[in-house]
Amino acid sequence: MTRYCxxxxxxxxGGNRLxxxxxxxxxxxxxxxxxxxxxxSGNVLFDFDERPTEGLEELFAYMMKDRxxxxxxxxxxxxxxxxxxxxxxxxxxxxxxxxVHTLFLERDADPEHFDRMVADHSGRGPEKIAxxxxxxxxxxxxxxxxxxxxxxxxxxxxxxxxxxxNVRSLARIHSKMG
Length: 178
What we know:
The protein is an alpha+beta fold. The chain is built from 6 helices and 8 strands; from the N terminus they run E-H-E-E-H-E-H-E-H-E-E-H-E-H.
């Protein structure tokens, strides 16, 4: 069995209210094992046979629509990928942990789209951005709340969805993954 984390986008924000108990139950009904939620924002740890995470992401999108009438995206990562999201983030240890994020993407970003996004953001704020495997590394420097580097800005330019977590949360999740 492999240990995974599903990072759901837009859970308990923007009107998508869902108890973590209901989310855990949905996972258990799908026969995932050792299901645990971390924080009330849609981080679900679970064990399952090793498989490509993209198929699990599709399953969870269907499950959320079918069970909860929610359209959302889930980025599924292994324990090693969560570790990498912290340790390979070039801003970890430089920026403040609650401002340094890894934005998990549904697929690898096209380098040309990434370069255009960086150029479009130039002069709009102090954020630092780096490209990673199926993710972006972001240092929000002055905080996420007032940043113009929003999820909508990123998704429009990259042409794919994502969901972000700060490195403090990711380190906590990684430690809970065993």
